[in-house]
Task: inverse folding
DNA sequence: AGGTCATTTCAAGAGTTGTTGAATAGTCGA
DNA sequence: TCGACTATTCAACAACTCTTGAAATGACCT
């Protein structure tokens, strides 16, 4: 994950409605939910939902697949993981308190991450 | 950390200049850096720097202290940790892939977090 | 083909955010 | 107290983001 992708992902995350979407879709797992069902659950107008879903998808935080006339959206865990990892790696890796919190585990998210190393982009 | 604080922190993070600031200030630790030194290092105009520093401070990601005529800014690791923990806890805790990545360690960041539990706000 | 349903695209408008130069406030040293 | 220095506030403007209703697209059923 590079700088501009991370920035896009953070921007996407930084919105109430989109945080709601992530939260709603997470328990739905790989299957996800159809746009219409999401709209109903969250009480969102169609265009508004579309706008936010595509923002999240474009940022790599959601994935979509068409089934008949429905579009199912599901969270892309790698995208979210990579975003968190980016913040950890590129902004906070030298900070003992944050570093200690994540050193071992975050590395599992994606091969690219080498938290114990000194990567710096 | 509540929803609106997390949102504020994510918004604050979602900007290139502010990411630069966090990155620059992290290695400087608790002591931080004086505003003027930051401005020079990053090549930022005064008002612009002030604007972004106060955005980050307001979001709880930075702290400041006055020394003589300088103002020193340093990262607030708890704020950053709490933000990451919020995303993990409130949006992704049911997602095996992300959960596995952070389960043990993030809990150390702040007492409030109980990643292995089922907290949901 | 015609009707309906699910979703997206479009265009307009309101609101918010970021940048700039000029002005202001506070601190220090002579 | 005066001048220099550090940093912030202000006002204006440009740019971007979000929301809305109307229109368009694509897929299914009869």
Result:
């Amino acid at each position: 994950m590079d700088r501009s992708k991370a920035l896009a992902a953070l921007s996407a995350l930084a919105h109430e409605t989109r945080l709601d979407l992530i939260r709603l879709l997470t328990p739905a797992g790989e299957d996800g939910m159809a746009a219409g069902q999401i709209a109903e659950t969250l009480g969102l107008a169609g265009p508004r939902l579309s706008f936010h879903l595509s923002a999240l998808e474009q940022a790599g935080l959601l994935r979509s697949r068409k089934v008949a006339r429905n579009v199912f959206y599901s969270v892309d865990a790698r995208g979210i993981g990579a975003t968190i990892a980016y913040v950890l790696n590129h902004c906070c890796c030298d900070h003992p308190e944050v570093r200690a919190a994540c050193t071992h585990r975050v590395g599992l998210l994606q091969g690219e991450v080498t938290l114990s190393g000194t990567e710096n982009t």
